[in-house]
Description:
The structure holds three protein chains of three kinds. Chain A is 77% helix and 0% strand. By secondary structure, chain A is mainly α. Chain A has one domain: MetI-like (MetI-like fold, Orthogonal Bundle), CATH 1.10.3720. In chain A, α11 (217-245) packs across α15 (291-312). The longest helix of chain A has 40 residues, at 21-60. Chain C has helices at residues 43-51, 93-103, 108-122, 137-150, 167-184, 195-201, 219-224, 229-234, 264-270, and strands at residues 4-12, 18-27, 32-36, 58-63, 66-67, 78-81, 155-159, 187-192, 204-209, 212-217, 241-248, 251-254, 259-261, 278-282, 287-289, 297-302, 306-309, 314-320, 323-330, 342-347, 352-355.
Amino acid sequence: MPDSMTAAVSAPRGPESGAGGGLRRLARRRSTIAFLMTLPLICVIVGLVAYPAVYAVYLSTLNRRMDEFAGLLQFEILVDNETFWLVVWQSCLFAISAVLAKALIGFWLAHMLHHIPTKGQRKWRGMLLIPWVIPPALSTLGWWWMYDPTYSSLNWILAIFAVPAVPWLGEPWWARISVILVNVWYGAPFFMIMYLAALKSVPEQLYEAAAIDGATSWQRLRHITLPMMQNIISITVLFSLIVTFANYDIVRVLTNGGPRDLTHVFATYAFQVGILSGNIPRGAAVSLFMLPALAVFAYFILRGVNRRNREMA
Amino acid sequence: MNLAANIHGSLRAERRWALIIAYVSLCAAVVIFLLPPVYMLITSLKTNAEMSNLQGNPWLVRSPTLEHYGTILGNPLFLTFFWNSIKVTVLTVIVTMVISVLAAFALARMRFWGSQALATGVFLTYLVPDTLLFIPLYQIVGGLGLLNSTWGLVLVYPTLTVPFCTWIMIGYFASIPKELDEAALIDGATWSQMLLKIFIPVALPGIIAATIFAFTVSWAAFVYPTAFITTPDQMPLTIGVVSTLVRGDTFAWGQIMAGALLAALPPVVVYAFLMDYYIAGLTAGATKG
Amino acid sequence: MAQVTLRKIVKEYEGGVQAVKGIDLDIADHEFVVLVGPSGCGKSTTLRMIAGLEEISGGDIMIGGAVVNDVPPRDRDIAMVFQNYALYPHMSVFDNMAFGLMLRKFPKDEIKRRVDNAARILDIVPLLERKPKALSGGQRQRVAMGRAIVRDPKVFLFDEPLSNLDAKLRVQMRTEIKKVHQTVRTTTIYVTHDQVEAMTLADRVVVMNHGIIEQVGPPQELYHNPATRFVAGFIGSPAMNFLPARVENDRVHLHGDAWLPIPEARRARYASAAGRDLLFGIRPEHLTDQRLGLPNRADILITPEVIEPMGMETLVHFHLGEARDCCARIEPTVHAAPGEPILLTADMNNMHLLDAATGRVL
């Protein structure tokens, strides 16, 4: 400290030459400390996410025995494979219909929850979030048992309403619906919680002002609630699209791709091909096919988040 | 006068109807949402004989029994699963929190070259699903000789937890007023004192929320253990229950359900006691980010 | 205790925006100096540079004779009170005040002695165990001051400490701060945008605008002898009236066609200004109803537009020529109504003449 003091006294300087060498040195040291503090994070991001992603690309260019460069061979094989196109189709159907249903149910429930007296909300919210809390691999086991063809407790309930027994997991279309159903059951509470938080952040005065301006409740929803929540809705939907599109647990436990490989999604198919059948390059290629869709979703999420940050700043 | 009373009356009626619809919807949702776990519980309390009996209501238990719980808790393999889950989860949570609190503090408060890009990078990694990475990670973990080892899981689980935890901690730290660090700076605090004595205590709710998130995610992780672990004695609960208890042909359902419920218990208990933090963590990504 | 000296202090942000444009200031030991000015004038930046929270782009800052440009805040031996108090929310009042001493490894009993002493000065002894959340705004403000006092630093820095309080509490805390300063006598630099706070608290007021110092002086001097139009308009409330004028034959000629005689004592001073474009400055309190028998008075006939009864006085708003929103203070007993012409008297002993082009007071 004394050194820098004498230096500061003796050095004549204009406004440009910059005072505070010590403070600046301090700032530089601060940068170094900050870098060291983020180093573990950088290691995780680079070593366990970025590097594997690039490595996946490399793997997908090898031949089956992984001893030779095979170019785009794996991708070409997949494109000619009927099962693969079924997987693409199935994944899209699964993601889109499940997310749509989750968003609608979540929005509806959030709205209902927002309208009941505040002191009861906690209790209801607590119960409604349970499906999200249970690890999905485990709750899906329960669903599997409820779908069981011989002992199906769901069919028993349907029988009360004189609905004929449903072959839940035995028939491809029903199997697809069953998978979607479980995913909706698991994910709708998440949407509900997000939308509830968003609803609560809309200032009450806006509704009061609109009511005085003569808006009906539908108009209030249309012109106040939805625009105010637009960003959260799109972020949540896009985020859920990624997660649902890449889902593994539910399909693995419920159908494991069956019957006859008709209900595979990207993740389970990649697992089957890459790990179980030991064709790592092909498996890597399958999962890389998810990338374009995920990149598009991620781009829009990032845009939404940035816009939201700007609005809140 | 009459008119006013009318409007008043219809307004009240409208409100009452809205409330009725709300409660009906919520009741229906609660019934549907709780159906599977309740049925799991019912199943776990039935005797095998009762389960195989196709007559009568499957939703009722006639002679409740705890025998399945006894069997599953007496099964050393199941206890091994439990122990593996605890070990992996605790280690992952510790590693995650150290990494994300340090990084979030630096990113929220010490502007440095590339900090903005890094923050965006954190968010992007959060969006990369595990199912995209498990095949290359399988090769990498295998190359390190960590397949069939819980250590391999401890190595890769941070990819599931660190990005989101860092992201919400940045939000919590950023919401601490700047004057607080300036006051601490003038009071004579160093960076480490500022982090330990000011930021961590003040952002404690955020830290709890992030810890809960890391805990539930590593407890529920399924893809990585399924891919990397095939020997039962290294399996955590999720894959252990799903792969070794499920044999399909015999009536192990009572045991499976008892095992699944026990396995789901820790996150549910955490949720029951720390619901507000749990929800804060869940929504923080969108409301703070 | 120490004096503080600023030499050609410059703060330049990235992109070349200068927030502070080379200011010089000498603050004596024990002195209470208030930096005052509108928002964006550079007063807070100056204070934060003294604190070491903001890097300086040029010049030197000396505390107690030593240049501290490169010294980090914790080694400058200063204490600061922030606008939003910046109390550590997770610590009790005692711990908040003790924190700085604890970091400096003071012995426990010395910490306790100092905190108790400060708590007694500030009258917050019963609050010591509470958390900041359980305190009112005024109490938080006291704790923030206590945190500064216990440190017994060379300099106190206050950054708009009262702006988060309601009007009544602000007046009360203002007195409190003055009392504390009279007790501990620590050199104090205080930033505010409120000229009343500046006038009431300061030994010397520093008026800043656009990153430069407009004028430095004791409150009374700024009030009676402002150097520039900015200072004349900033100090005093309601603000001084400025009327376009010329000087002819020892009289001020207002554009509204009033002729006001200049007091004999000032004629020589204004002689050279004859014929130039000037502004005639007069405070509302020196523009009153005519019944006061003043020497050197001059009458102006105006038509009130808005009357504001304040209780102890009545404010009359009017316009005169091109000068809009002029104001006069009259006795509450005088009848005045919008639209009814009324004769006002200017106290010419308190008049000011300004150069319309440069804004300098002549």
